Amino acid sequence: MVEEFISSITNQLDRVQDALRIKAVNRPLTYALKELHLELKVFVDMDPQGQVLLRAAGPNEVGASTLAMDFTTITKPMIEENTISLAASRSTPLDNLGLKPEEQMKLERLGVTNLAQLERLKGSTGVSTVARMADMSIDRLRSALQTGQPRLGGVAPPRPVPAPRPPVAPPPVARPPVVARPPVATRPPVVRPAPVFVPPPRRPLRQLDAESFEADAPASVLEVDPRSRVLALSGSNLMHEAYPPEVRLNGEALEIEELDDDRLVVRLPQDFEPGALEVRLGDRDPQCYALVHPFSAEDAIADAMGHDPWAPDGGTR
């Protein structure tokens, strides 16, 4: 392909430039390559995906085309001015929007390679104009934009906390032999009544009420070990520019430690208390969880629904 050929040439030219930098340590004046001109005898073809393919002509093979290329230098400011930013390139690619290969080719001809560029073009010209210029159906384009909306899926388990190492037993110490002693009269054992079991008081779950739980209350409860320092949330299209994520625990904003297109990792406070975890994507309705410690998940639902498991009849308080 043309892309692979040009990349190979430029990579070798970069190594020449690196060698000149090392050579400049001892020689203040040297020579560099100003321009590179190539004339190739090749056969040009194009595959179904629209990629231009080059095949070098063999000996005495006629009918080849002459491909002339001129390489020149370019500086870092010129690269940054004429290329897209790295942040924009991290957006959801067209492959994940449910588009067919031929539909992706039509959008790439308009300079659209990811969701962020498609949203930017739609905001400037409108969906109908983009569909007309790309020769696509408006419904297909709207379906792709809808597929690119950010979605929060399940919650990934927190990073495992290393278990404490067992204590190392000290080496055995030699002891003197035990001398047998005469038996001593013992008193009869005293019989004591068995202790009465008193259930421990439940830990109150703050900032949760009955309105926080609906019919799918068990699915909204999230058990997190109190020793966990991070919480990972899975999803799709989470790097959408128009929907920046925001996570709060009991009304307090949590620091976002890692953000990727399918993963959101937040840092939990030290000795965090159970409560309401709210995840908001831009101006969309927040998705809420009941963040509890592992031993209090059932108590969280009982507190919210007014159910008392310690009542004699198992009824409500």
Can you describe this structure?
It is a single chain. The protein is an alpha+beta fold and 317 residues long. It folds into three domains: 2-82, no CATH class; 86-148; 210-305, Immunoglobulin-like. The protein is 26% helix and 22% strand. It contains nine helices and twelve strands. It has helices at residues 2-23, 76-82, 86-89, 101-108, 115-125, 127-134, 138-147, 217-220, 297-305, and strands spanning 36-46, 52-56, 65-71, 151-156, 221-223, 230-236, 245-249, 252-253, 255-260, 263-267, 275-281, 287-292. The strands form three sheets. Strands 5-12-11-7-8 form a five-stranded mixed beta sheet. Strands 4-6-10-9 form a four-stranded antiparallel beta sheet, with no helix packed on it. Strand 9 (255-260) and strand 10 form a beta hairpin. The longest helix is centred in the N-terminal third of the chain and has 22 residues, at 2-23. It starts with a helix and ends in a 12-residue tail after the last helix. Residues 202-219 have low confidence and may be disordered.
